[in-house]
Amino acid sequence: MRKLKITFNAPVTLGFVFICFVVTLLGVLTGGGSIRLLFMTYHSSLTNPLTYLRFFTHVFGHAGWSHFIGNASYLLLLGPMLEEKYGSKEMLEVIGVTALATGIVNYIFFWNVALCGASGVVFAFIVLASFTGFRAGEIPLSFILVAIIFIGQQVYEGIVVQDNISNMAHIIGGIVGAVVGYNLNRK
Hints:
Layout: H1 11-29, H2 33-38, H3 49-57, H4 65-86, H5 88-109, H6 119-129, H7 141-160, H8 167-186
Helix pairs in contact: 1-4, 3-5, 4-5, 4-6, 5-6, 5-8, 6-7, 6-8, 7-8
């Protein structure tokens, strides 16, 4: 009989979720101070070097445990499958591009809104996952349905619902996932 062992199967996904966990814990211990300082992007002076750092680090910060758990659940569900199919380097790029794109768009267009959390990355993963069955010359129905349901819901809620959820980050993440998914599978 073969022994079962635990494997570190998705280093980027697991590392990302672990960093988010540590940052969320630090945020709780500092009463949100560390999140506001390092892990939340908002309209701050372009002469402040932390402004540029926060364009990337805001995806690690979460507003609390339920925010973290919601995002971590999707990341852990989708990330390992995507990392196995596309590779760790590509997943790191998806996270980085999504962070930068959502950070810059938030800074330019939503100057009165602070942004933190990995939900843009989650949406990138959701849309990217819909490309797993992609073949040249075909558009997967799963991609069309994901685009209509998930992205359509975010556009609708962004217009109609007033809450503290960044629908912009979800939409940008979905666009990043679609572009990356198309380009990776086109080859």
